[in-house]
Design goal:
- With 747 residues, this protein is α/β, with parallel strands linked by helices.
- It folds into three domains: 3-363, Spore Coat Polysaccharide Biosynthesis Protein SpsA, Chain A; 387-495 and 529-557, Rossmann fold (3-Layer(aba) Sandwich), CATH 3.40.50.11930; 577-731, Rossmann fold (3-Layer(aba) Sandwich).
- 40% of the residues lie in helices and 16% in strands.
- The strands form four sheets. Strands 1, 2, 3, 4, 5, 6, 7, 8, 11, 12 and 13 form an eleven-stranded mixed β-sheet that branches. A seven-stranded parallel β-sheet has the order 16-15-14-17-18-19-20, sandwiched between helices.
- Strand 9 (246-248) and strand 10 form a beta hairpin.
- Helix 21 packs across helix 26.
- The protein is elongated, with a radius of gyration of 31 Å.
- The model is unreliable at 1-12, 21-90 and 97-106 (pLDDT under 50).
Length: 747
Amino acid sequence: MSSSALLPEALRAELDALRKRADQFSTSEKTIEELRRHLDSYERSTFWRLTWPARMAVSQGRRLLGFAGRFGRDPVTAHVGTTSPPRITEVISCAESDEVPDTATSDEAPLRFPRYAHPVLSIIIPVYGQVPVTLRCLRSIMQNPPSCSYEVLVAEDASGDPAVAALAAIPGLVFIGRQDNLGFLRNSNDAARMAGGTYFHFLNNDTEVLPGAFDALVTRLESDRTIGLTGSKLLFADGTLQEAGGIVWNDASGMNVGRGDRELDRAAWNWPRDVDYISGASIAISRALFDSLNGFDEIFAPAYYEDTDLAFRVRAAGFRVVFEPASVVIHHEGISHGTDETRGVKACQARNRDVMLRRWKTVLEADHFAPGTHLLRAAAHGRHRQTILIIDHYVPQPDRDAGSRATLCVIRALLGAGWLVKFWPMDRKRTAWSHDLECLGVEICDHTCPLSFSEWLEQNGDDLDHVMIMRPVVAREFLPLVVAGTAARRSYYGHDIHFLRMMREAEVTGNEALRHEALAMQRLEMWLWQQFECVIYLSDYEARLVRDLVPAAPARTIVPFCFTPDNTSRPVTGGATILFVGGFAHPPNVDAALWLHNTIMPLVRARAPQARLVLAGSGPAPAVCALADSQTTVTGAISDEELERLYATARVAAVPLRFGAGVKNKVLEALHHGLPLVTTPVGAEGVTGISPACGIADTAEAFADALVELIDDDGLWRERSDQGRRLISEEFSPVRFSESLLRVLTA
């Protein structure tokens, strides 16, 4: 079916007239410019204007931005590098271009592309006539180009359409004009042999790329060498979802995940994941891998299933196939080959499905599901992956609280072990941290999920191997629904023993109401410990306490936090800055800050008057903010980069906790940074082997003495710094963490 047959009646007549005029034109520069002006009028047509709102709404989305600037632009005028000379039956045209187009180019600007001697990315567009459609695609590339060096190749497959002369004249475009028709697949393979990029991006001509589409795919391939093939999220022209990755069922039929959904911000479509295949309308692969696989298999010529087969061969070669939601492309489906499966090239679809089924029958039976079943796993190529649902109070906020950092350690370890991770936040909120969690490869069931928790379990409960619920108040709400909705193994991750922390606070503050709350919390926690197959705490003393109170409870201990090992010797830091780090939504940290500032620091400054105090952490209460003075800084929420700077410039860390429970991340974090530390018995609790690495004091006087000693004694400072880093590297590495977690979850 021709492209004009799909257009509104008025435009069809205009294009028919245009083609008649084109037959009369010579190939002079003046005539080509006149032809281009007429073709550009198509882009200003009603059809083009009607699709503008959807395109712009999506292009403004924050997910589509943020990849610019990764690669420097350095256009050159040398000829574009190729891997082999063109065949004599082809005409290669690459008009000169000596400047990079402005990425904010308007629709009125003439098309032109930069020239690079050694492009990182080759954008390969196979075409057969359809010049207005191709021009629209090219304009979108010019307006939203890659940040890396690139080339654009258009391989015109001997359509005989005289209008293709307009393509050959575009400055900087590598135009391959064939004398013999090869068909879509062979045309793509042959164009790839002439491309010069490190990576290939195969792009249909009936597409429009949105901002960041190219960079997201290149970034995905470069950031993880286990990924062999990646591809874009595809939209219809009206802004609805066409595909967020593809499923191949065990009969070789396919399904576009999310097709027809108008809610593009739904979390289900916005997390990168392994998939069975990605539609070849927009896919990226390294040149080396594509060449090693001999390109698209020509058994599928002229078209259809070649992209699916390529994905299977990429996996068979030991690489992953990953859907990248940050790359978004509008695909005007059906323009290239139509939609009638009984006519033309489209008729090859059924034949090639049979070829696919015969070739991959063993794999399809072993690794794929029956049509329409087990969507949770099928959408993530997850038939053989352990699948876990994690339920917590909100999406982890690692710059706000240590519990979030612990949760992220769990999630990263499970992902690293190949588990499929789903996350259900009790508050159902989508936050600034949601995107970071999704980028790790986690689907978040936030408010964009249209199902209630019980509905979600009814739909997906049979596909879960494990459910992990965190914290007692979360478990109290969700446990009955989990028991009713799935037979998956249940684990409880307490973070700390809540009633113990609350009771200690009541003892320090004399708060009788809090003591009663602690007793109620104890009853809840003791009941919960009996409802799970696995109860997880972060220290042996907590697990022992659980078993003492409830002997039948399956309490287990895991490594509490993990840090990348670093045994380098940190240079001695001068000065007398004392650093306290903690999220102030947590009552123990507020009490510690007040005790440190009001009681301990006056004792320190009596002997070290130059001592400064930095109280760093989010949500400082009014009482904490009031501590700021000429020698005390209260930072409020800070970035990870600023926290790193504070650790690097402080002389000593102070963790003066008078109550609390569990292992304290701030203690381990200071040791990881090689920053000598003074803490209390509560702060040191649960960390085996910590004594040689830090000072432990239970009174204000002893705490002040220990701080002053580290300010004055470089030798002691050096010894404590090295011992702290050694302890973290040996006991709190990601490997040790992962081993301990998987051991208790699979026991």
